[in-house]
Design goal:
Blueprint (H helix, E strand, L loop, with lengths): L1 E3 L17 E2 L2 E2 L9 E2 L6 E2 L1 E5 L8 E2 L6 E2 L1 E5 L7 E8 L8 H20 L9 E7 L1 H7 L3 E7 L15
Parallel strand pairs: 2-8
Antiparallel strand pairs: 1-11, 3-11, 4-5, 6-9, 7-9, 7-10, 10-12, 11-12
Protein name: Septum formation family protein
Pfam families: Septum_form
InterPro entries: Septum_form (IPR026004)
Length: 168
């Protein structure tokens, strides 16, 4: 899977998060092994679990990672500070890999379309940004991967709780 940068975001959550992870089955703008997560206000370590990127589900909250190729992502409880929440997922169509640009275009369109239904306000009116994981050519061809996972985040910092219906 690949994760790509949203139209206006630089998700300042992590400078290294140029938003383009590459999974050995997915590409995204996140790196692969999760550094210890800490609560920014208390400094206490937050429990996170490395989870297979292909098992992400809507409502999962996660932190970014530090490599460009990922197979696992650091899932955390949404009540704890986190960088992203999965807000939508969908399958791309086709037998043959359509190319990185076509995958990116379709993923961006699908995630943008679902944004306001999750947040409760249009993307243009929202303070939040999105990015996404998409299939790589290898995961498409070798693993029959067509899944796009849309992630919402805040360029101004960590999130606490779900962004479902926040209407901001």
């Amino acid at each position: 899977m690949t994760i790509s940068a949203p139209t206006r975001i630089t998700l300042g959550v992590a400078a290294a998060l140029a938003l383009g992870l590459t999974f050995s089955g997915c590409t995204a703008l996140f790196p692969s092994s999760a550094p210890p997560a800490t609560d920014s206000s208390t400094g206490e370590e937050i429990e996170q679990t490395d989870t297979d990127v292909f098992t992400l589900a809507v409502g999962d909250c996660m932190n970014d990672t530090s490599s460009t190729e990922v197979t696992e992502v650091p899932i955390v409880d949404c009540a704890d500070e986190h960088d992203f929440e999965v807000y939508y997922d969908f399958q791309l169509d086709g037998t043959d890999y359509p190319g990185d640009e076509a995958v990116d275009t379709d993923a961006n369109a699908g995630c943008l379309e679902a944004f306001d239904g999750f947040v409760g306000i249009s993307y243009d009116e929202s303070q939040y940004d999105y990015t996404y994981f998409t299939p790589t050519e290898g995961s498409w061809t070798d693993g029959d991967d067509r899944l796009v996972s849309c992630l919402i985040g805040d360029a101004n910092g960590k999130l606490t709780g779900s962004l479902k219906g926040v209407a901001q």
